[in-house]
Design goal:
Length: 175
Amino acid sequence: MNWRTSCRVAAALVVVSLGTATAAAAQAAAGAAAASPTPAAATVDSAQAALTRRLFELMRVGPTVLAEMESGVEAQRKASAASANLPEAFWTEFSTRMRRDLPQFVETLVPIYATRFSRQELEQLVAFYRSPLGRHLTEVSGAIKVEMMQAGYRWGVALGADVAKELADKGVMLQ
């Protein structure tokens, strides 16, 4: 692996870590109490499930997931075209199914919230996202996330370059 590849790998790891940290911080700020995985066969109270669906609408979960997936697909499509790994037909069909199946995917997310928040907490979250501040947060979250990911990428590239240079100075070959 050459130093440029090392830098890109480091940047990708930072971006992934930053995205995970951003999601974790958002959950913590919203009052998420449990960090354990949702049980596979979690029983979800129908009222809590309905509140969670309403919360997802207010948070624009579906459109956000779709935008992030489309961005990821485009990056993978470019990488695949450069390396000739997958034909364009794959990406076209993948994108079509992604849009088609998005509602079912978002539905699989309902238990993740519904099992971690009480009905009262979900009602408070819905009230918050209906408020002017909650609507503003929803409007600016995407731009904030993009800027954070760009900052994370720049940091990762610089960090990777520093590590690669220091290792090279010590005689470690990165190829």
